[in-house]
Amino acid sequence: MKLAIDHKSPIPLHIQAEQLLRELIKDPAYQAGKLLPNEVELAKKLAISRTTLRQAINKLVYEELLIRKKGFGTKVANSRISSKSMNWLSFSQEMKARGINVKNYELHVSWVFPDESTASFFDIGTDKKIVKMERLRGSSDSPFVYFISYFHPRIGLTGEEDFKRPLYEMLEDEYSTIANLSKEEISALEANKFIAGKLEIEAGSPVLFRKRFVYDQGERPMEYNLGYYKAESFVYTVESRRT
Amino acid sequence: MKLAIDHKSPIPLHIQAEQLLRELIKDPAYQAGKLLPNEVELAKKLAISRTTLRQAINKLVYEELLIRKKGFGTKVANSRISSKSMNWLSFSQEMKARGINVKNYELHVSWVFPDESTASFFDIGTDKKIVKMERLRGSSDSPFVYFISYFHPRIGLTGEEDFKRPLYEMLEDEYSTIANLSKEEISALEANKFIAGKLEIEAGSPVLFRKRFVYDQGERPMEYNLGYYKAESFVYTVESRRT
DNA sequence: GCTTAAACTATGTAAATACATAATTAAGCT
DNA sequence: AGCTTAATTATGTATTTACATAGTTTAAGC
Known about the structure:
9 strands; DNA-binding; homodimer; Arc Repressor Mutant, subunit A; Chorismate lyase; two-stranded antiparallel ribbon; alpha+beta; 8 helices
């Protein structure tokens, strides 16, 4: 892990600084709320101008990873899990950006007959098996989300793929299938016994439930995803502007 | 709409420039793909430095409203139109569109001291009362959402307005205050006794909780809205496209 | 002891300047 | 005409400098 900036590199200094900051803020001390070195000092230490450093910091502030307070300092945002980018970063990438170590508690891939609604979304029959993936993930402390994904047979998954890789990256690399459009429905549910057991909460406790309909480049359905999030650990953010 | 920058205004120049750009790009010519004036020229015309202008442009680029190409120019991104506009229907309009008859179970308007977080969002003190509106609404059968709204004193509400009208329509008509930007956070909660009583459910049952930060034309905070939705009766939909 | 004022700290805003680089256009050569 | 090269254009990167302003801490005054 290099914590220095290479002035001879063709990579712009502010990009280098940005990446360096992303690493830096993973430090438990900063995660715990310790202020970052002030801009003037940090710029000096990195041998770049304050303007350039601010350019880097700005990006992280925009992503809501950092918070700046005039006259006080800059610190890591107390990250509940949420962000605009959430929609298009896969779960593991999002967690990585926040310095949270993702742990896979369970990963199960199987071939199953689709239920009515899944078959209907995929526009296929209920008599042909498709790939189902179940995944229990969370921080190192505890699981906080349970995913179920169904994949359209068109993609050609075998079920033997490396599902430990970021999902959409894998699909793009191995099957040239690019997730392009997603429609989501978010609601609150009582955890049933099964989900409660997985998330290690009481049955009947609230969970945030997200249905996700994912379409490929040709607007064809490719994935049907169900996500059950432990209530207190997940906030979904939406930003919209009047048009 | 003034297309000039006021150097004597306390509003930072790059913020003014940003707002000005937001207006400018509404011009059909720019929407159609015409290049914006180049940075050096535009800065000169606005009588600000290129650095400051770039600061403004950067924001719109972050928001994916503008696209820059080195050596070529800057133009409006061909904006994907998503059903995000859904969020811009008020509750009653939304219900109407679904063919559900809205019943107002309770409507209570009062003047109260804002709590910390509300005051902080509005950037005011906690020692001056503001207008609070509480509203319990639902279908003809039963209530299914409890709203709490706080309004910024800038708007000038008296508390005597006709809150039975669609809210944003009333604000626009009576106070020329237009809701322009909304940031929302959606999560799942256990209903406390108060909310449970209102929604006629058991305490501890899940509710979908939506915080909504609403800003006006000048990106100034205007409304802080809390919504508690009975879990089984509300689904939040989001549509997003990869960029 | 309490309040007020001043000093200090760190971010916020703004400009002027210089050069690098990608995309496009024009010029020049065979 | 078709290719290569040079000039032009507009954004990209980076520094230096200066002062403003919001929070915090310290000192002064009553």
